[in-house]
Amino acid sequence: MKKVFFLAVIVMSSMFFSCEKGNVEETNENVTVDLIDNQTDVQGKWGVVWRCYYIFERGLNFRGNCYSQFNGVCGVKRICIPIIVDPCWIVPCWIDIFDPWIIYEKIDPRDFLSFRDKLELDIDPRETAMPFALNEEIAGLQFYQEEGLFKDNVFTVKESLILDAETSKELGLQGNVVKAGEYPVIHNKENGTYNVILAVEKGFER
After folding, report:
1. Which of 5, 57, 53 has the alpha carbon at shortest distance from 34?
2. What was the pLDDT predicted at 108?
3. What pLDDT does 43 receive?
4. CA–CA separation, 18 vs 128, rounded Å?
5. Which residue has the higher pLDDT, 116 or 9?
6. DSSP-based three-state secondary structure for 115
């Protein structure tokens, strides 16, 4: 399970990539602007939305040189700023319930969207689980295949489970230890996710 959380950390921490910059050579006698802040929100991978700005350099491109005294467009550059997607957009967050089984009874399974689908993650559903937090005492793991891990929507922890401490802190959890016992699985049949709801103890162990 620690391996699963470590993989999830790598996935969720790969947030800042350089955005491509392209130079476009063309002439346009009608363009007379120096800057167009034409913003678009581009959905990227790894939970990043890129807000992009297009900067136009005015002038005439002739043999690789830009002559600004002429109307036209010498080049276009796209500068993108990464915006981290709020996980609460995908799963319920900070609900005032601290019993996994009460959450199981009260929450509509359709409230759990798919991290894999929303973030366009290319992952192996047989080996990967995405961690999340419903509040400071309730952690979750989103699986994409049952593969014998669950029975009758129940996930059994035979021995106390120690989750990755760094990931737990980043999620806002108050601890990272899950006691042995049975925990509910909320199955969203519409997107094929299995969301294990876990109670975590206070304090962090490694």
Report:
1. 57
2. 96
3. 53
4. 26
5. 116
6. helix
pLDDT digits (tens, 9 = 90+) for 44-84: 544 566 767 777 777 777 777 888 777 777 777 777 766 66
The first and second tokens of residue 151, run together, are 């029975």
Residue 48 token pair? 């990043």
Residue 38 is encoded by which pair of tokens?
């034409």
pTM: 0.65
CB-based burial label for 125 (10 Å; 0-12, 13-18, 19+): middle
DSSP state of 18: P
pLDDT at 42: 54
Which tokens sit at 152?
């009758």
Residues contacting residue 17 through CB under 8 Å, at least 6 positions apart: 44, 46, 48, 82
CA distance 146 to 110: 17
Which of 112, 130, 124 is CA-nearest to residue 13?
Answer: 130
What is the residue type of 62?
Answer: F
Beta-strand relationship, 138-143 and 193-199 = antiparallel
List Cβ neighbours of 138 (8 Å cut-off, separation of 6 or more). Answer: 97, 98, 100, 103, 197, 198, 199, 200
Q: Provide, for the chain, the percentages of residues in helix, strand and coil under a 3-state DSSP scheme, each rounded to the nearest 5.
A: 15, 35, 45
Residues 38, 96 contacting (CB under 8 angstroms):
no
Alpha-carbon gap, residue 150 to 158, rounded angstroms: 13
Q: 106 with 143: CB under 8 angstroms? A: no
CA distances from 30 to 25, 27, 59 (A): 15, 9, 11
Give kind and range of the element (H or E) at residue 66.
Answer: strand 65-67
